[in-house]
């Protein structure tokens, strides 16, 4: 395994990453992120090596596909985040698995205007909001973003999976052949990946996928040691495909860490359950504080994630 540790950030576009984190798009409410991405791609793709075909519309709900050249491999990055849905009175229901302390700031908007409220919990640990008025039932609430950057780290809500989206957009700048897929509902049970897989398999015979998502710092995966290549989580990808990815990381001397977990899942798990013969692997930077307002990722791990994806899309 490559093991040289670099601490210098080179080409991180912090402004773009912050903008992505600030777009409110909990599961089921991805339209705002879809619109942001469509505007971004239309504005910036003129300068990319290949201008992609942009595929979206009612047949794809709020998902987006960017098709470059003759695709062999797909990148999947999910657009949604964890958060809460307003129920009745001042009750909140979780979207996905948010993990915030009492007093965390939540934001959103309803028919009466902009909302910034506080998260509370009752004696039975039910989530509630504290605000000066009732909020319309069904209103989605997400963490208020406090974007912090130091020499070595980025810390903010929603690096999962805005960093996966950011990585895909960086790869898009030089991508010649491939398809980038922005999916929905990943944090709350999924549902979009099967029909997206159906489309790319039948249209272009794409059977390889990289999951551009964020994993955990753990007792075996550390900050600053490079991108994590996952050998398994709750699901197990085909080892011969994962070995190709490891070989490419070794060939180009990219720092990486091998992850082995028994829980957690991603768009890769949904791919594996389809009727299509997809090979897939989760390749992403590890973070501390998953699903909290204070997710934290080392810049070197972001850089190695992006560097490895650049090579994988050329060589797989």
SS content category: alpha+beta
Tally the beta strands.
19
Order of strands across the biggest sheet? 1-2-12-3-13-17-15-16
Say what the CATH topology of the largest domain is: Aminopeptidase
CATH class of the largest domain equals Alpha Beta
Describe what you observe in this structure.
- There is one protein chain.
- By secondary structure, the protein is an alpha+beta fold.
- It has 2 domains: 236 residues, Zn peptidases (Aminopeptidase), CATH 3.40.630.10; 61 residues, Peptidase M42, domain 2 (Elongation Factor Tu (Ef-tu), domain 3), CATH 2.40.30.40.
- Helices cover 27% and strands 28% of the residues.
- The protein has 7 helices and 19 strands.
- The strands form 3 sheets. An 8-stranded mixed β-sheet has the order 1-2-12-3-13-17-15-16, with helices on both faces. It has a 6-stranded antiparallel β-sheet with strand order 5-4-9-6-7-8, with no helix packed on it.
- Strand 4 and strand 5 form a beta hairpin.
- Helix 1 crosses helix 3 and helix 3 crosses helix 7.
- The N terminus is likely disordered.
